[in-house]
Amino acid sequence: MIARYFAYGSNMNPARVRERGIIFGAALGARLAGYRLAFDKSSSRHPDVGHANIVFDPAAVVEGVLYELDGPAEIQKMDRFESAPVNYSRDIVEVVTQHGVQSTWTYFANPAVLVAGLKPPRSYLDHLLAGREYLSPAYYAALAGWECVEER
After folding, report:
1. How confident is the model over 141-151, as pLDDT tens digits?
2. How far is CA 72 from its chain centroid?
3. Which neighbouring-strand residues pair with 61?
4. Which of 56, 64, 107, 132 would suit a FRET pair with 16, their CA atoms being 20 to 30 Å apart?
C-alpha cells in the first residue's frame, strides 16, 4: 500500500502537517503534470473563501510537497483534516521528484463544494508559501502574487 502524500495546498507547510499529528520522514519537492492549481473549493466555515484544489489541465503543472509517510495509516489521519470523503476525495496520482516518478495519494475537491471565482485568505495562502524550499522560484512567485480576500 502507498505511504506517500502529495500536498499542493495548505499542507505544503510541514509544520502544519506535524501539528496535525501526521508522521512523516522525508519531504521532497514534486510536480504533478496535467493539472493546475485552483482555489475553487468553498471553505466549510466561510463559503465565500476558496481553498486549494487541482483541476485537470493537460498544459499545466502543479508543484507541491511529497511526504514519505510513516505508514499507510497516516493518510487515513489526513482524511479527517481534509473532510474526506465529504469535501475531498482521495486518489492515487503519479508525481515527478528528484528520485523519478512516484505514486502517491492526493486529494481532489468534490463537485458539490466547488464554486468558481473564489480567492484564498492571506493566512491560508501563507501555508502554501511555507513550502518555498520545495517549489521552483517561478511557481513560488506565482503563488506569492495570488490575489487574496480580506481576512474574516
Report:
1. 999 999 999 87
2. 18
3. 33
4. 56
Domains of the chain: 4-144 (3.10.490.10)
How far is Cα 39 from Cα 54, in angstroms, rounded to an integer? 8
Which residue's C-alpha cell is 506535524?
A: 18
**% helix / strand / coil in the chain, to the nearest 5?**
25, 45, 30
Is there a contact between 1 and 104 (Cβ–Cβ < 8 Å)?
Answer: no
Q: State how far the alpha carbon of 141 is from the alpha carbons of 23, 46, 87, 129, 146, in Å.
A: 29, 26, 28, 9, 9
**Which residue positions in the chain have pLDDT lower than 50?**
none
**Per-residue model confidence (pLDDT) at position 7:** 98
Cβ atoms of 103 and 2 within 8 Å: the answer is yes
Q: Is the pTM of this model over 0.90?
A: yes
